[in-house]
Amino acid sequence: MERSDGAVRWYQNRRAGQRFHLSYRRSRVAQGNRDFKGAMIVKPWSAAVRACPGTWAALVLFVILLVGVVAINCGASRPLDQHEIYVAQTASEMIARGDPLIPYYLDAPRLEKPPLPYWLTAATHLALGADGARVTEFEARLPSLVAGLALIFVTFALARAAFGERRVGIVAAALLGSSWYFFAYARSVRPEMLYALLCTVQMLGIVIAANRAEEGRSTLAGALLAWGAVALALLTKGPQLPAFMMAGAALALWLRRPRPALGRVLRPWIGLGLVALVVPYYAYLAVQAEGVAQFWAEQMVQNTDVPIWLRPLRFYYPVRLVIAFLPWAVAAGLAVVWTIRRRQPNALLLGWAIVVALLFVGFAGKLRQHYILPLLPLLAALAAAAAVELYDRARTEAGTRRLLGWLVAGQAVLVLAALGSIAWRAQAAHPLSDMPMLPAALPWLAVGGVGLVLACMFVRARPPAALAALVASVLAAIGAISWSGLDVQPHWAKGAVFAAKLSETVGRDGALILDSGDRGTIAYYGGRTLEATPIDAWLAANPGRPLPYVICRPVCRSRAHKLEGEVVLRQHRIKGTQAMILYRITRVRPAGP
Is 398 exposed, middle or buried (0-12, 13-18, 19+ CB in 10 A)? Predict the structure, then answer.
């Protein structure tokens, strides 16, 4: 039987087919004897799980607090950005047309992306019984909010299945739910949160199948869970991340000693059968639109100036993964060290899934920060396992207790930096109301400061309470952002207001052309589907028609020097963007000699 100096180890007795939770207590040995001989207490895995009766209550309380801070201001007070409008407008047009098979965006088929996000958004609108075909902002965001809450429970289940303790599960759920990217994408219409949920369910199924294979039990349930999630992920965003994570898990299983039968664990024939159910829809879309298959093939390997074999050396995605996990950067580093040193089988399974996915996604030509979102639950599970083991060791080892104190202090510094950054940014005015955001953020920041003080008080005597106080402080920071509107993008907020006023200014039947600007924002908030047409080209193609209103940028007016008119509506210039104007043409100057 294997022996370790650590306080907590998980050991699989393959002979008896049972999992044991091993707790080691260091005993004094003769001076000069480097060999460790200590008393070993062996507890069955089921008894170790039952030893934490308060975890379910803690998980439910955490989810309630998370809903309270994430779901604030997810309606019309937070306008959709351009990428969110793709989903909301497509679902609206799908409802208006009554055709659930072919997605349309601005009256043209949108076949480049899988349809499940559109279906869920349209189903949410119909289920809530709203009038009309237009999907509201809250209805569009609700699927991501639900997927985010489901991801918290799936992360809990993944960490518990991989490491055999509810404590690890609750810590993993807390770390994930209070991370930066979870907050950002749980409030977004984009399908990234649903995609992350399905990828995590896939890894949960693989872990369950691997555990059951080592115990000599059937792996059918785990394989069905994993491959069912892969099939749904294909309908959500594509096969890239599920394929990369499956490859990493297969590599980890192949490196295990003794090596399990990969076919028995992963059951690829089940995967082929479930994926085959999705293929007919993709074949139907490929027939309906010319060139869509080539578009799908180029999504991960776009043409850029960087040679494909040098792209992983940019290290964009490993760094972005740590940024996505903020403010828990210290916990991320602890997870890496613990996984390499302990080499626990399920930890290596999750670790290899992360490494292989980061390697392959690094070959993408375009850098997309949301590609790493499905890896966050795996990193949270590893960080939680490392933190729980470090805490158990600190109960008996003075050196480990000091190390734990320094790590918690480092996390407290990061949380303090986050609170300070929020307070500094909240001094600006809200993009919609032009009112200062700081008064709305201050109560939340005060709560976050109290959490930091409590964390510092508990860091030596009660490390679990210190971690809970840090998580509460981070949730308060999230509440400050969502309540004050700090995450409202100024450019798209002003664009939404500009588009909403078009109907009032021009009228439903007024002549209106789009010289430059975002068509999606105008269609969703203005109710007008316009083709992008230069002013001169429209006048040449429509002689004798009434002079139109023109949506353009200020530079376009100088280009059309033969036009006379007035600016009747203006979108103020925002840093990094150009202003938009609604220009009313009153006269065309005669051509010169």
Answer: exposed
